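In the laboratory, one determines a bound structure by crystallizing the protein with its ligand and collecting diffraction data. In a computational setting the workflow is compressed into a single prediction: the sequence and the ligand go in, and a structural description comes out. We illustrate the idea with NDP.
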Amino acid sequence: MDTEKLIIIGSGPAGHTAAIYAARAELKPLMIEGRTPGGQLMLTTEVENFPGFPKGMMGPEMMMQFKEQSLRFETRIESDDVTSVDFSVHPFVVKTAEKTYQAESVIVATGASAMWIGVPGEKEYSGRGVSACATCDGFFFKGKNIVVVGGGDSAMEEANFLTKFATKVTVLVRKDTLRASKIMQERAKKNPKIEFIWNTEVKEVLGDGAKITALKIFNNQTNETSEFPTEGLFVAIGHKPNTDIFKGQLELDGKGYVVVQPGTTRTNIDGVFAAGDVADHVYRQAITAAGTGCMAALEAERWLAARE
Ligand code: NDP
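The predicted complex, in structure-token form:
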């Protein structure tokens, strides 16, 4: 088996930026992009805050351009999911369902995924009125009354986007304040189709067996429980890092994010670097992911050069 110089696991802004830099440094990187490539920008609408795109760009289109740029410099891309890694041996071992690879260095850029509330009915009605992706599913809610849960930028973005289709969007917020940035809050508050209900938690998703019909909601100030009729529920309450395959292999923090040495992308394993949302619960932006992807490639390049 050939040993790769560098394997990049993941294909969001961090993975592709790492690939572009590593390929231009002639490391001939192999990217394992996963079965659902492109990361979270594939699930977003317009990206307005990525410098260099003054008119904005749709997230999936931006990811296609990232990929095109990686391929231009001859990154090799495999579309499998990584199922396990062994970082206790060197060369490192990276396995997919089909193949086993060896690598001198690895960049972990597996990102993060949407979180679910974890109440009864949520899983049961997933895809039957319950969703975590307005871009994917918004179209199915034309002329309907729907609910968005969450108080961050994601919730505001989803709520605004969903007003293109829905008659009314009710945002349920568990506190009496929003965590979202001021500009996103204002946009949502000004939208006549959006209404906020504060201090309110979802306790159960109710349905008729085929589709969602209502939510059991709880006001944490008055302790009242009631039923709120709705035809759709969009969950937008944050994300969790995709690190299951690295448990026991890399040092993870209490929330499951990969721990990197401050100011670097170095993990606790020499030769393994982490970039993007998988190691960042603070900024979680496409641009910061791209920035750390660049750092990881430069660090991998220097680490490999020092070994030679
Ligand atoms: P955040 O972690 O910022 O916000 C999560 C929200 O969900 C909070 O309001 C939180 O409430 C609420 N929440 C968490 N768990 C529950 C629960 N079980 N039930 C009800 N509510 C819950 O996540 P986001 O995904 O919104 O944003 C992540 C990052 O991505 C941020 O940095 C954001 O700025 C960025 N982003 C930027 C966008 C843009 O610029 N266009 C678009 C989307 C995201 P509480 O406040 O009570 O904890």
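The two ends are 20 Å apart (CA to CA). Keep in mind that any predicted model is a hypothesis to be tested, not a measurement.
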